Amino acid sequence: MIILGPVKTEKAIHKVEYENTLSFVVDMKATKKDIAAEFEKLFNVKAYAVRTFVTAKGKKHALVKLEKSVKADDVAAKMKMLA
Q: Does domain 3-78 sit in CATH 2.30.42.10?
């Protein structure tokens, strides 16, 4: 399992609403290609771009930007990230 779970902070919710981007905590050894492949497999949605970073607490996060034709709100609602 590469994607460990969604990030549900206020900043992450803002990215969903205004930047069409979802945030996830991922495995430290995962590459961008691995993350994109698993995301597309899990949600049946094409990832436009994947950015990763490691937090000060030592967790790796991935920002998955979606195509404009797909709403991140819909994917987030399926994950019960948004009400």
A: no
CA distance 54 to 47: 20
- Cα–Cα distance for residue pair 30/68, rounded to 1 Å: 25
Instruction: Report the helix count and the strand count for the chain, using DSSP H and E.
Output: 3, 4
Per-residue pLDDT tens digits of the chain, which is 83 residues long: 899 999 999 999 999 999 999 999 999 999 999 999 999 999 999 999 999 999 999 999 999 999 999 999 989 888 877 65
Identify the CA nearest to 42 among candidates 2, 82, 83.
2
